[in-house]
Amino acid sequence: MARATSGETGTVTDDDRTGAQRGPRTAVVLAGGGFKGAFELGALRHLVEHHDVVPDVITATSAGAILGVVAAQARTRDELLVRLDEADADLMSMTRIDVVFGEQPWFRELDGTAAADQIRRMLTQGGPPADGADGPEAGTHADRQAGRHDRSHDRSHDERHRGPGAAGGHPFTDAVEFVRRLPRAHRAGNDHTDGGILNLDPFEASLRGGTDVGVAPVDPALVARDGLELRLATTHLRSRTTHYVTQDAVLVDSDARTPVEGAGSFDLVDGLIASASVPGVFPPRVLGSTEYVDGGVLANIPLAAAAALEPDRILTLAASPVRAPDHPAAVRVAEQLGYLATQVDNLATPLPDGTVHTVIQPTMLVVGTFEVHPGRMRIDIDYGWLRAQETVAGLDDGTRPILTTTSDTIIRLRQRAWSIENRLIERRNAADLSDLRATKAAIGSALVARSALGFPGPDGSEVWRHGWELHTRPVPDDLPASFD
User: Do β-strands 190-191 and 186-187 pair in parallel, antiparallel, or remain unpaired?
Assistant: First the structure.
């Protein structure tokens, strides 16, 4: 007999969803984190490919909301795998920041000035050097946070990527703080910081099937079908609380169920844009008659919404290591909104009795919040896949740290290989080529060790040892095609 699950959108049977008996009612929680959401994409792919996870509930914030809406168009495993391929292509397209994101009018008026150049460098901190020179990616914000990079390259990297007064903080908040120090400029009677630095107009147009910037259109009718409950976290500026946008584009209160009175009319894409509107970087989004900003201000991990919908199991995918924020500017943004919620607080949410909760998270950062290089994004996607594989395996306390360390080693080595390759593409150096061969060999050894523990890498992982990482420039013919 088919087990029936009920939600606000109606009743759906297991046979309707997959043609076979389904397991427990499952919620997937997708955290915010900018382009660090690549980790979540890789983790979700592993869960779908190898554990047949097809969520009944998706709660998501910001970058997680972008992935969540794409995934919410699916109702079966096969459909979901196709949508994850789509999300992968979307993510790679979004690294073209100048195409996918627009610039606010006041910012465009500064074009060609040192201030505008500095703001752009801050926002793209974590990407490759603009001049293609030798500064390694191990010197990015992400790596500084993890305390792992070659100190000899700090000066050259920092001179390119950090401006006056920047202290290596979050690239969004660094840029916003820099803007606030500029002389006041008014556009249509508003201070230039009120409307943000960038806008999501090209991204939104692509989602709606208009101007194509490489982001696939979203079909709200597919999302609204019976069989899945969606909650996109947004922050209500006036009341300073978290509200959620449902699969039917209904605005519900912080309990994730009660409709907000007088919310007005809007659509699913409006809700998605609101969830991703980082304060100070993007302008607030009006839903109905009220302004909303990024849900991550208060609910970067929207576990509370998932708990309110009472699933049997919850899989939480975090884009960053779960810890208290260590950036004063980020703390200040939250305080200005009246709250100081962290991922740690989000995860302290009480769960319904009997709910099984699994958190899949990185132990280090691979990309910055506004990472601009698809090659590093690809490494982070693979990191999510590896970490999901080991997290859901139910390892004992002896095996878990060994496997985690092995996975982290593989990812660090791939980051190192990417950096060396980036230099070699620009300028041949015998020492770099020798170092690259040794790094590739170490990646191979780590993959063998991990496989010996019963955890092979994803399909295609043999390329990590033998081939080149993804780069935006072609590999010159005078460099080896492989490293066998």
Answer: antiparallel
